[in-house]
Every structure is written in C-alpha cells, then in structure tokens.
Amino acid sequence: MTTTPRSSSATTRVGALVERLVAMVDKGLLAPGARLRSIREGALEEGVSRNTMVEAYDRLVALGYAEARRGSGYFVRSVPRARGHETPEHVAEAVDGVSLLREQLEQRYEVRVGDGRPPASWMEGSELGQYLRHPRSPLYGAVEHGYGSPWGFAPLRERIALVMAERSIHVGMDQVLLTHGANHALDLVVRHLIAPGDTVLVDSPGYYPLFGKLRLAKANLVGVQRRGDGPDLNDLEAKAAAHRPKAFFTQSLGHNPMGGAITLPAAHRLLQVAQRQDFLVVEDDPFADLLPASAARLAALDQLERVIYVSSFSKTLSASLRVGYVAASPAVTQTLCDLKMVTLVSTSDYVERLVHQLIVGGQYRRHLRRLRTRLEAATVPALDTLAALGLKVLADPGGAYYLWAKLPAGVDERQLARDAAARGIFLAPGHVFLPERAPSAPALRINVAYADDPRFTAFMREALTGPRR
Fold it and tell me: What are the residue ranges of helices labelled H in 27-97?
C-alpha cells in the first residue's frame, strides 16, 4: 500500500496562516500574553483542518511568536525575540510535518489508531522487560517501551536545571533539551542557525568535529585566534566587523585542544563584542561537571539571551553513555526539539534513566571526585615530562584533559604523527584543530593521562634530537 504525500496546498495553507498571524503580532493586533483561538475554533473560522491549525500554531511556537501551555492552549509570547530565534525557511520546511511525530512521542490521546508502533503491552513479556523488572537491574522499574518524550527524561532535565542554577545559569524545564551527546547538540544548533553561505566564527585552534559539521552545512568558517585566557578579543572584533557572522562557536573552559579557561573580564568583553556586532554565541562546556560551578561561563553572564549552551556527560561519565544537553531560550529550544524529532526521533529513555539514577544515587558524585583526583595527579607529571622534552605548554591547565605543546620550529608535525603511528603511538598534530587548514607553528594536543608513558617520551626524545624535517 502506498502513502499519499502531504499536498503542497496543505503546506501553502499552513504558511499563509502563519504569515497572517505573525503579521498580527508584529502590528500589535495580538497583544503579548493574549490567548490564541483554540484549535477547534481556529480551524472552523479559518476553514482549515485541525491538523493544519495545529501545525500553524506549532510553527508559531518554533518562530518564537507563541507558547503552548499544557491544558490552557496557545498564547502570544510576551518576551522579546532576539536575532537568531527566527527559524530559517529550510528548517521550517523540514519540521513542517512534525506534529504527527510529536503526538506519537508525547501521547496526549488515549486512542492511538494513528500510531506507528505496537502498544507497550505487547512488549511486556519480552526478555528486555523481564530484565528491567529484575531487582538487580540498574534500571529496575524502568519498564517503558516507547520512544520516550522528544525532550528527554523529565527527571534528568529537572536535575540538569538545578545543576545549571548552581552555575548561575537559570533555566526553566522548557529550556533544556536532552541530546545524544554534545556532538548531537552541536549538530542540532548548526542545523537551526546556519544556512549555506553563512559566516561563522570558531576558535582557532578549536574543536575539529565542529568544523566538519559546519562544512557540511556549507558555512564559511573564519578562525579566531585562541589564547590561554580565551579568544583574542581584538581578533574577534575585527573579524566580526569584517565578516558579519551569524554566530561564534567557542569553548570557554577546559578548552579542546589548548586547555586553559576564559577569564571573567574576557568573558564580559566577548559578550560586549557579540552585542555590538550582533551575533549569537554557542558555548560548548563538555567538562562542566569537573570544573568549579563559579568558573566564568558566558551563559551565566548572558542568561541565554544571546548564548546557546551545550554540555554533556560523555567526557565525565562514559563516552558510551551518549547523553548531552542543550539549553537556550524557549523558542530556540522548541525548534531544536522539532529538529531532534526529524533527525533522530528521540534519545534513549533507558540511558537517560541510567544517568539520572547514577546522579541521584550519589555514584556520579563519587566518580567525579575520583576523576578530579586522577586529573590532578596526572597533570603535574605531564607538565614535567613536556618541560624535560623542551616543549613549551602555551596555556595553563584548565582542569580538563588537554595541554597544547609547541613543537620546535622546523618539525614536520604530520611526519612526526606518521612516525609515531608506525611505533604504535597515537599523536594529535596541531593542524587538525585549525579551521583554516593552513600551515602554522607546529604543535601537539597532549592528553595528560598518557603524557608520561615511557614509550611516548622515548619516541619524542629520539624524534626531537634527530635532524629536523
């Protein structure tokens, strides 16, 4: 049996209705806080189907013009919409049919003839169900066989909101979206913000997987020189004025690959530059749970007006437990949730429950305490090892895993990495972390956990005392 595609006329009706409602809000004909017509009333008055009305209201929410209040309906938003909260046309088209998927995930209706899955009761006798009911199961009692909410496991989101408050970032539940790790969160943000040809600023050196995502989005990458205390702010302002970027992607704390952390004065000035030059800031904070809650964070200074905040448990708990999150304004987070449904449907409810259980049970706190102790114990000998090799570390350790070691002039870092690989040693040469892909001073990213391995030190001593290549 074939499925009839959604007609272009239906899409046109949704678009026309959204444009008319947006114009009414912009002209003040619909005041902030005003309740919009119910789905039924709106459908009757507009002469459209209920589904068309639902999609129109969902589009208004995504655009930041309306908010949905459970049990009360839709209301005109009473908060200002900052630049960048608008949903690009290609994103709006992608999430145009998301209302059916949203209902399958959120399950507001009791009779589910239109659902795409078998009922959960059909799964209750499964091996998985029996395992989850066993008292020794780490997820004892978590017998759910649906996709889970597209927003993620609510108790974990609530716990994250409390932890963010400790970092002086105050958010509501509608501002926290769980993701499949920080990389997935960044992917959603890129899909939301960036259209082909847009210019974005990034740290240089910076997080190389992000560069790949931005290139897939056909963005124009411009690197901002990174220093030990944060971005070079003169370079940032000059490039922002010259290129008029859509956003600046940066990692304030425990920087990858340099280590180091932004200072509070630098963070203040960075946000002033963003305000003057009118671009958004995406702050990646994957080591947040290892670092002091009082550390300088752009999201804490800005309170998510211009900053989108990304973090994760993957770097601190387990790379196999792919749980991250993104926090932003309610309008942006709603659009990111829609994009999550379109691209991934939902994240793993089981994994999110496991992470939540580790947090509330105290195991995660104890794990972090041990991890910090190990990091502190490894960092000092790592610095001593690099100093003994004659390698200068260009930033103070930032409390995370990385050091940025400058190699002597004339060393070919690519050949050095190839030679190391032939000896079973994995190196991270500096050019990988540069968005420009241009020649620069040779460097290595060093993970402090492995820096004092005698095989590494013996190889580097031999390589650095031999002829320059």
Answer: 39-46, 50-63, 89-94
The total of other beta-carbon atoms located within 10 Å of residue 119's CB is: 11
What pLDDT shows up at residue 87? 58
Residue 250: inside a domain: yes
Q: Is the pLDDT of residue 405 over 50?
A: yes
The phi and psi torsions of 38 (rounded to 5 degrees) equal -65, 165
Cα separation, 382 vs 352, in Å, equals 35
The more confidently predicted of residues 174 and 283 is 283
The number of distinct structural domains making up the chain is 3
Q: Are 95 and 62 in contact (CB under 8 A)?
A: yes
Report the alpha-carbon distance of residue 140 to residue 321 in Å, rounded. 18
- List, for residues 185-215, the tens digit of each pLDDT value: 999 999 999 999 999 999 999 998 899 999 9
Q: Is residue 437 part of a domain?
A: yes
Please give the order of strands across the beta sheet that includes 324-327.
176-179, 324-327, 307-312, 280-284, 247-250, 199-204, 220-227, 230-231
Q: Which residues, listed in sequence order, are joined to residue 231 by a DSSP beta bridge?
A: 226
- 247, 84 in Cβ contact below 8 A? yes
CA distance 259 to 446: 9
Q: Work out the widest C-alpha separation in the chain, in whole angstroms.
A: 82
Confidence tier at 135 by pLDDT (50, 70, 90): low
Q: Which structural domain range is residue 234 located in?
A: 131-360
- φ, ψ (nearest 5 deg) of residue 281: -125, 130
Separation CA 221–CA 76 (nearest Å): 36
Tokens linked to 349: 């409810």
Quote the crossing angle between the two packed helices 98-106 and 330-344, to the nearest 10°.
90
Per-residue pLDDT reduced to its tens digit, 409-447? 889 988 998 898 888 888 888 888 999 866 678 999 988
Q: List Cβ neighbours of 339 (8 Å cut-off, separation of 6 or more).
A: 91, 94, 95, 188, 191, 192
Mean pLDDT of the chain: 83
pLDDT of 231 > 60? The answer is yes
CATH of the domain at 175: 3.40.640.10
Q: Which among 413, 189, 432 has a CA at the least distance from the CA of 308? A: 189
pTM: 0.72
In this structure, the answer to whether residues 311 and 452 fall within a common structural domain is no
Confidence of residue 262 (pLDDT cuts 50, 70, 90): very high
Contact 452, 403 (CB under 8 A): no
SS3 track for 200-218: EEEEECCCHHHHHHHHHCC
Q: Both 148 and 256 in a single domain? A: yes
